[in-house]
Design goal:
- This protein has 7 helices and 7 strands, in the order H-H-H-H-E-E-E-E-H-E-E-H-E-H.
- The protein is α+β, with helices and mostly antiparallel strands.
- The protein folds into 3 domains: 37 residues, no CATH class; 125 residues, Electron Transport, Fmn-binding Protein, Chain A (Pnp Oxidase, Chain A, Roll), CATH 2.30.110.10; 34 residues.
- A hairpin with a 4-residue loop joins strand 5 and strand 6.
- The model has no long low-confidence stretch (mean pLDDT 90).
Length: 206
């Protein structure tokens, strides 16, 4: 677990529970003084982020309630702009603007990016800034976008953490399954063709 992530998440209340449950000693090395780690996007994180077609996003309202939203798009719509910045073109949705309004009062955001097929999960903590307007978002448009975006959303990464894969149930998208389904389809077609040939031979001999 990177130090930057634990520095932000291991609050005094969290540390109390770690002490009570016996895990404080294990995690103490993650909050010791030293060079800050885990606040920049490396090659592995960049590849993972840009291979996703969606992520879970959490914000907090001025009344203190968290709001979790799923944001989806085509693979690569969440872009890595530099080692500490990611961004996406924010298209119009259901017009509730809950996340957008929450971020006006508190720019902190938490993301969870999932790779169910390979049981991998990346957590990101950051701060969001928006630039309103279609022109501002143009450089973040995913390829083939058919509608104009309302704004550009830029997230400055404060910390990130590769999470434990233990309880991630493998799930597969159609795109992930398609090569395997195509191979099975070809095998089935071949078996059906061979079966028809055998039927014809048996008919000829009877």
């Amino acid at each position: 677990m990177p130090r930057a992530f634990s520095e932000l998440t291991f609050t005094p209340a969290v540390r109390v529970h770690q002490e009570r449950m016996g895990s404080a000693r294990t995690y103490s090395k993650f909050i010791e003084d030293g060079p800050q780690q885990g606040h920049q996007i490396g090659p592995a994180e960049k590849a993972f982020i840009q291979a996703r077609d969606g992520f879970y996003q959490s914000t907090v309202s001025e009344t203190g309630w968290p709001y979790v939203q799923y944001r989806g798009g085509q693979v690569g719509f969440l872009k890595v702009l530099d080692p500490q910045t990611i961004g996406y073109a924010d298209f119009s949705g259901n017009k509730q603007y809950i996340s957008r309004g929450n971020l006006d009062g508190n720019d902190r955001i938490a993301l969870i990016l999932m790779d169910y097929a390979n049981q991998r999960r990346l957590k990101i903590l950051g701060r969001v800034t928006f630039t309103e307007g279609e022109t501002a978002a143009a450089s973040l448009y995913p390829e083939g976008a058919e509608a104009p975006a309302e704004r550009a959303a830029l997230i400055r990464v404060e910390a990130l953490d590769w999470n434990c894969p233990r309880h991630i149930t493998p799930r597969f998208t159609e795109a992930e399954l398609r090569p395997h389904l195509n191979a099975l389809g070809q095998q089935l077609a071949q078996l059906q063709a061979e079966n028809e040939k055998l039927k014809q031979l048996l008919t000829q001999r009877s």
